């Protein structure tokens, strides 16, 4: 079983609650209609979920823990929530018109099995929609060596935890293995380049690499010391303070028709 590398520290939720359907599910929005039943897998704090409730008939949302579900309920009171495992969804076959997962498959133990389950609970003619980032494809400037060290450390932690930090590029392959033949693959990016955006993103990662579950995993696996994590946090602050600072985060996206 994979371990969720990020956890739900405040620095993680600071990022997750920034997400909206517009900035994180734009590839899906044109396919949604007001008569649809949608399952949101790995809903996190529910900010994307909340937007989706305004676009479809009803949203059912699941995540793995009660604590994050309680937060999601506050942000998306119109949705129905529960806990669940994407490897074994607790729904009958052909239940939903749309099954959506954002930044989920990179963290699960068996992404092909997860997609098969998402396909199973999707109605014939329905859509399975997934979007995942691709950490090795992150691009930034200035080229700070310690940010290269940050990326190498994150990749090693994620892989040791059973995840796929390069999931974005693998989504199409996984979907084909899961039995989908009608698949539209696209990509999109988040870009952080303004002074405000750099301060937010750089400050978030400075805190995350020192204090979240990522930091605990780094120390537990013997991959970094507290001093190393402090250095990586300082690198993110240095990047954020640079007037030339620019960061682009690549995502793979799929619309899979059943």
Largest sheet: 8 strands, mixed
Poorly predicted regions? none
Quote the average pLDDT: 95
User: How many runs of DSSP E, i.e. beta strands?
Assistant: 8
**Radius of gyration, in angstroms, nearest whole number:** 18 Å
In terms of DSSP E residues, the strand content is: 15-25%
Distance linking N and C termini: 27 Å
Please give the count of helices: 11
Helix content: 40-55%
Task: Tell the overall outline.
Answer: globular
Structural class: alpha/beta
Order of helices and strands: HHHEHEHEEHEEHHEHHHE
Describe the protein in words.
This protein is 43% helix and 23% strand. With 258 residues, the protein is α/β, with parallel strands linked by helices. Strands 1, 2, 3, 4, 5, 6, 7 and 8 form an 8-stranded mixed sheet that branches. The protein is globular, with a radius of gyration of 18 Å. The two termini are 27 Å apart.
What key attributes describe this structure?
alpha/beta, 11 helices, 8 strands, 258 residues, globular
SSE order and pairing:
Layout: H1 10-16, H2 21-24, H3 26-29, E1 37-41, H4 47-53, E2 58-63, H5 66-75, E3 80-83, E4 96-102, H6 111-120, E5 122-133, E6 139-141, H7 145-160, H8 167-177, E7 182-192, H9 195-211, H10 213-220, H11 226-241, E8 246-257
Parallel strand pairs: 1-2, 1-4, 2-3, 4-5
Antiparallel strand pairs: 5-8, 6-8, 7-8
Helix pairs in contact: 1-9, 7-11, 9-10, 9-11
What's a quick, concise take on this entry?
The protein is α/β, with parallel strands linked by helices and about 260 residues long.
